[in-house]
Write a structure and sequence with these properties.
By secondary structure, this protein is an alpha+beta fold. It contains one helix and four strands.
Length: about 60
């Protein structure tokens, strides 16, 4: 998958737990997630609707994180 047009932004909560997660949500129909400390390590690419459901579940407390 070509992510050359991805605009990466660091998640607001990344600094709170020592992790550094970046998300690119500007690509049609997908969201890409990567470790900002290791961007050369690649990215997880998921359907945007699935990622939105995941974020909603996190915000709703479904996962013990």
């Amino acid at each position: 998958m070509d992510l050359s047009l991805a605009i990466w932004r660091k998640a607001n909560a990344s600094a709170l737990n020592g992790g550094c997660v970046e998300v690119a949500a500007n690509l049609p129909g997908i969201a890409a997630i990567r470790d900002s400390k290791r961007p050369e390590g690649g990215a997880h690419v998921v359907d945007r609707a699935a990622f939105a459901r995941f974020l909603s579940d996190v915000q709703g407390g479904r996962y013990d994180i």
